[in-house]
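To start, one record:
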Amino acid sequence: MTNKSHWDNVYQTKQPNEVSWTQGKPETSLRLISNCNLPKTARIIDVGGGDSTLVDCLLELGYTDLTVLDISDKAIEKAKVRLGESANKVKWIISDITEFQPTEKYAVWHDRATFHFLTEAIQIEKYQSLVQNYVSDYLIMATFSTTGPLKCSGLDIKQYTIADLESTFQNGFQKVEGFYEDHKTPFETIQNFVFCRFKKK
């Protein structure tokens, strides 16, 4: 099964309360984006956004240049249905992140869902190249920490510490904040995440 068919199957067969990553409101991501102190016209991309409500919240806050990228068209279709007419205010991109070819730079690149699934060096190198070339201001990264899960949705993941993320993105980025945070899943289990916000050098 390819990555795309895996995630299409997940989004076709499961509701938000049946997957571990669901958040009622992504408060931490919203705070980190706010901490960038950028105008509401700043270009923001949510990588691996799936049917996350982050885009809903950003629209409500008045942000006007939003892109959501996900490997699964089923996930994006769910988000579009939920947003209704507001979905037309968002750019939707269906792509594996390692095959993504951006046509514009992003003031904020937000990723709470994708990077820790890249377990091979060549995938990580492609991602590093993407953010170095297509992020103009801030990179916001969240992954499972070294006390978090070893798998997600049946797939292997790569765990990180704050220092690991800082080292991974040291070419081109300076860490401005980093912390660990427990995420309570819809199943009442706890997953530990590491969050970092980096500024482009």
Notes: DSSP finds six helices and nine strands in the chain. The chain has one domain: 3-200. The radius of gyration is 16 Å. The domain at 3-200 is CATH 3.40.50.150 (Rossmann fold).
